[in-house]
Amino acid sequence: MSKPSLSVTTASPRAKWIAGILVVSYAMVAMIPLVWIFMTGFKSPPDSISYPPKVVFEPSLEGYVNLFTTRSRQTDEYIESLGPPETWYDELVRKRNMVITGPSRFADRYWNSVVIGFGSTFLAVFLGTLAAYGFSRFKVPLKDDLLFFILSTRMMPPIAVAIPIFLMYRELGLSDTAAGMILLYTTVNLSLAVWLLKGFVDEIPREYEEAAVVDGYTRLQAFVKVVLPQMRAGIAATAIFCLIFSWNEYAFALLLTSGNAQTAPPFIPIIIGEGGLDWPAVAAGATLFLLPVVIFTVMLRNQLLRGITFGAVRK
Amino acid sequence: MAEIRIENLKKNFGDFIAVRDSSFTIEDGEFFVMLGPSGCGKTTTLRMIAGLETPSDGRILLDGEDVTYKRGAERDIAFVFQLFALYPHMTVRGNISFPLRLQGLPRREVRERTEEVARLLKIEPLLDRGVGGLAAGDRQRVALGRAIVRRAKAFLMDEPLGALDAEFRDLMCEELRLLHKRISATSVYVTHDQIEAMSMADRICVMNKGDVLQIGAPMEVYNRPATKFVASFIGSPSMNFLPAQGNVSPGDTEIQVNGARLAMPEAREGLARTESVLGARPEHITISQDGALRGRVFAVEYMGARQLITIDTDAGRLRVRAPNTVRVGDGELVGLSFDPARVLVFDPASDRTLNSALFDADGEAHAHG
User: Fold this and answer.
1) Which ipTM value was assigned to this complex?
2) Under an 8 Å CB criterion, which residues of B touch A?
3) How many domains in chain B?
4) If we measure between CA atoms, which residue out of B210, B239, B368 comes closest to residue B316?
5) Which sequence spans correspond to the domains of chain A?
6) Which residues does chain A have within 8 Å of residue B89's beta carbon, measured at their own beta carbons?
7) Does the bond joining B237 to the residue before it have cis omega, within 30 degrees of 0?
């Protein structure tokens, strides 16, 4: 028998074990779909739809090749007349009696997602930081009402206003433009950004700015040199939330974009292969689509942890 | 270095009057302490001098120059905040050199001046550490360093020792005093701790509810308080107050407390009321069997060389500071006599101290205190 731990902050070894097992099993359950998507991306199309599902399979890059190319079916004679395949992906495609006819639009869609996702995140965080500072530090007439109004924009699902926005965008020529999508996502994210960031600014004592002002700095310099560095954690956390929303947004992207500005989410699920959806290509697209958010989150994860628990414990 | 002149300074926040109408001058090189309970307006006054608060009315002159509406950045004043306000994302060096980095000085000079200040404050080994893990005293020193590195015209300090524990506070009190001696800069120091004020100040300014009640040297404020509030706020344990009866006329040398006639310094003005308040500090009352006022010992606290005796009289409870040679027990009936040169009389309506021989010429009246 080990001695029972009376401390509030240190867990007993047994409690640690139980907690560990719970966390690990939850993580595994949560990871299953992701792992499955990742695996499907490396399956051949027949393997991807075989029943019972194959857990052990021969890995193939067909999904990734299909994701980035358009192909057409040809006769054996025609394929033979082309001579030996020039590249490994030509070879892969020809096994299925196909030839590559050109690149797919996936790269364009992906780039649109990067521009729109990161662009709107930057704008929302930038404007949100300034607004939050203003709300936190200055006397703003009707401050509480304004803050409530800003929050109220999130009180219905954004898609509820999809039709008016669709009509407005058509009139304004913003339909199917990256600028239009950045504007839209910034609008949706801004209320979250203002509220989150205001909490972080509120936590920073005014004395820091006052000290800087007395020492000869202007208000703006004090903001840049003293307040901003202390908001790093909050800005990182807010940026991640904003990016996750605008990166994953599906409904507006489906409705408002088609040709030029379409982002990856509405594109990936409709990658058609022979006789239906090309599941390995869809899974490959989803895998690649996950990467930026994962990398961004991993890069900022230390800040994020501090950000989420900020204010919970004062030192 | 500079003289700070305050002229009819007022500040209200909505209906609340933080500073009613202050006028005083802080001399060049003086250590000036503003003392009062929280909410008395001392911090607001300090913040107005620093340019962190805009006065509702009045003027602030720094070396004769009107700075009332100048931004804090243009006043060349250094400020030490109660919670130090050290920038957590900078090292000690970064914090101390922060005010210098704005001035476009050569890098070498910034470095030299930062290290000179660190040497003066004995925090040189800490220069490249972050400020997060510093002990309270070291944080205090860094905050002071940031204030003195710029060689500003004046140093303003808002309860800079309030966040330190008692033992350390005494040490820092002494260090601050020494520092002031070395750099002899005009310093304005805000505190609610009268002991801090007494031990450090050249002059003390006592405030309450937005009013300046008295400005004077610590001895002066202690011995000749201008109002009953000043008398009660300064000194620990606080001054004893007893209700007194009968008119006071100029020339009177006695006052009645519950039928006992007590000698007092000759009154210089009269009080046309039937009631007044007598004040005597615990060390100005002695226990003697022929004392005019009598009371019963309620409690005795031994404090080494001295003891504090609490006595219940018909007029009210009194505390007496007596040498430890005096032997009394709980419940014992004793007589009390008051030092006739040190007794004060207050007007209960205005709170003001009545003028008496005690206030006559400097020093003489309380020379034997």
Assistant:
1) 0.78
2) 50-52, 71-73, 75-79, 81-83, 85, 87-89, 98-99, 102-103, 132, 146, 150
3) 2
4) B239
5) 61-104, 107-266+291-309
6) 229-230, 232
7) yes
Nearest CA in chain A to B148: A215
Q: What is the CATH number of the domain that holds B161?
A: 3.40.50.300
**Is 50 exceeded by the pLDDT of residue B369?**
no
Strand stretches in A89-178, DSSP E: 98-103
Bond from prior residue into A52 cis (ω within 30 degrees of 0): yes
Residue A48: alpha-carbon gap to chain centroid: 26
Question: Could you read off the pLDDT of A26-82 as tens digits, one per residue?
Answer: 999 999 999 999 999 999 888 888 888 888 889 999 999 999 998 888 888 888 888
Q: What is the pLDDT of residue A31?
A: 93
Let me know whether B216 and B107 are in one domain.
yes
Q: Which one of A214, A229, A315 has the shortest CB-CB distance to B79?
A: A214
- Nearest by CB: B88 against A210, A212, A230: A230
**How far apart are the CA of B170 and the nearest CA of chain A, in angstroms?**
25
What pLDDT, in 10s, does the model give residues B228-259?
999 999 988 899 999 998 888 898 888 988 88
pLDDT per residue as tens digits for the range B317-337: 999 999 988 888 899 999 999
Residues A64-98 as b/e (b if ≥16 CB within 10 A, e otherwise) read: bbbbbbebeebeeeebeeeeebeeebbebbbeeeb
Q: Sort out which chain B residues have CB atoms less than 8 A from A218's CB and list them.
A: 73
Burial class (CB in 10 A: 0-12, 13-18, 19+), B232: middle
* Cβ-proximal residues to A147 (8 Å cutoff; 6+ apart), any chain: A135, A194, A195, A198
Spell out the residues 6+ positions from residue B243 whose beta carbon is closer than 8 angstroms to its own. B257, B275, B276, B277, B278, B315, B316
A/B interface, count of CB pairs below 8 Å: 59
Which residue in B310, B318, B314 sits closest to B338, CA to CA? B318
- Residues B45, B77: one domain? yes
CATH architecture of A107-266+291-309: Orthogonal Bundle (1.10)
Same domain? B329 vs B203? no
Beta carbons of B85 and A229 less than 8 Å apart = no
Last residue of a domain, one of B190, B223, B256: B223
d(CA A206, CA A172): 43
Domain that holds residue B28: 4-223
Q: Nearest CA to CA, how far is B162 from chain A (Å)?
A: 15
**Model pTM greater than 0.90?**
no
Does B264 lie in the same domain as B206? no
